Sequence to fold (592 residues):
Amino acid sequence: MALIVQKFGGTSVATPEKIQAAARKAVRTQQEGNQVVVVVSAMGHETDHLIDLAKKVNEEPPAREMDMLLSTGEQVSVALMAMAIHSFGHQAVSLTGAQMGIRTDSSYTKARIKTISTERIRKHLDAGKIVIAAGFQGVDDDFNITTLGRGGSDTTAVALAAVLGADACEIYTDVDGVYTTDPRLLPEARQMGLISYDEMLELASLGASVMHNRSIEFAKKFDVPIRVRSSFSDAPGSMIVSMPESPSVAVCGAALTRDEARLTIKNVQDTPGMSYAIFKRLADRKITVDMIVQNIGLESRADVSFTVPSNELRDAQRAIQEAMPLVGATEVTCDDAVAKVSVVGLGMADQTGVAEKMFGALANAGINIQMITTSEIKISCLVQRSEGTQALRAVHQAFGLHHKPTDANTWHIGQMQHAKMSPSEVVERLRSTNLEQLTLLDISLLEDQARVTLSGVADNPGLAEKIFKAVADAGAVVDMIVQSCDGHQGETSISFTVPSDQLQACLKVLESGKFGVRKVTSASNIAKLSVSGIGLRSHTSVAIALFKALADLGINVIMTNTSELRVNVVVDGKDAKRALEALKKTFEGALV
Ligand code: ADP
Ligand code: ASP
Ligand code: MG
Fold:
């Protein structure tokens, strides 16, 4: 008998009628000869209401009590769903996170799942009941109730599918599947037949709220194919699997994060240990930092900019206040009216011209780019929040995302069986003492690279495109790009890396005076160190351990970028080997 996990999101259980409709789907699936576990979210906007309520009694509610409160939303819906199934004459039992034995760590409001005991669920399934599992919640070792972070019911569903060795994991939501971007923002978005784990993981963490990013970490780690489909139709939906939709396109999707805030710490001492001192304090508070840009400054001083989710800005400011005296910084500025537009695609890793195309699309729309960061499979640009949707539309259009790729792969249901774990693998997984523990796959070194920094670049739409077009025409293949405002009014600075043997060609075009750049500096021998794994943006400890290892050796970090798949740092070439050894030693226990 097959086992199917079905998850119904907030809109899918928003009213008694919708709960009944979802209950009917579960009953139908059971009647087709399957065992069924249903994971449910809180009804409609209930979680938002509970947060508002909490804020009415305390501006900054204690996190433990917040989880106690928020978990009630899911408790209501599991009970109602079980009642609905009973009303159709079928057996169902509702279980909270604690009753299912979902053990988490104690990081309230963003707890990670450690273990799940499946006996109780199995017992009920074997007795012919449909199990209704509360999404988004668990308990820590002291039985404090915890929640997994907004959107976390997806993670409950995929985690249950993984540990139960389910035959299918279906995410029922209010759209027909995964689109090239949020179809509510851009009606021209196209529904994808399938998308790879890596691409979905990046998109989810860059704003594609259709899936909780950590659910995709589970899916990738345990190879759980996911079907995302509509609660309100029988349309087939989209598959999230190990392969991409098209083997040839550079970009498969775009996303917008509207609730982003930028912080800049000015005049930081540019010495080893500086990144560690700053980002450790943010990581200690479990704040997810993105778009880290360090301007290569004058007189051993640097400006460090990065973004955080707007709702964590206040906490981030506190963390920075602690770090400032340690790094000799003089000032912090912040901008809470920014949005981040990103493009993602596995094909980007081995195609050139993708960054220019994105910068060109924004320039043509008259949109100024405030910050740029790139990594292997994503490019993010920070823009004014009021221009966010327009920016998203411009890049979606430029990459032709509304057209189905001519070489699109399809996914057959038979492949689902192939991906399924064997019973022994499931047993092995259940032995795991920490399901969401960090998974590192590789540590590598790329030598013979060069850095180019352009300071005093006029902050005008279109300049980034022109610069990277000229560099590409000079035959250089650009890897990391970072850009941020550098403190002078209306000016910005751009740094990027290229292979060392392409440096001279780059310098020749950039020093031609065509781009009105105040100063061009370069370093001909730098190296990129990369730690790759799964979910590295939310496992902030990786970047921190990396910064610490380098700081302990007195090695300066010249550039950094992070994605879900990798943390990269650029160091001086002469330090490269020593740095690699140190990282291998730091992470040796975590490599799989
Ligand atoms: P649920 O309550 O079912 O978990 P969510 O609101 O969390 O639903 O996620 C579904 C929403 O995600 C959609 O209504 C859509 O607006 C949004 N979304 C954002 N990006 C995408 C995307 N790339 N594809 C599909 N939906 C997306
Ligand atoms: N109810 C929670 C939220 O709104 C979890 C979820 O819906 O996935 O974030
Ligand atoms: Mg959701």
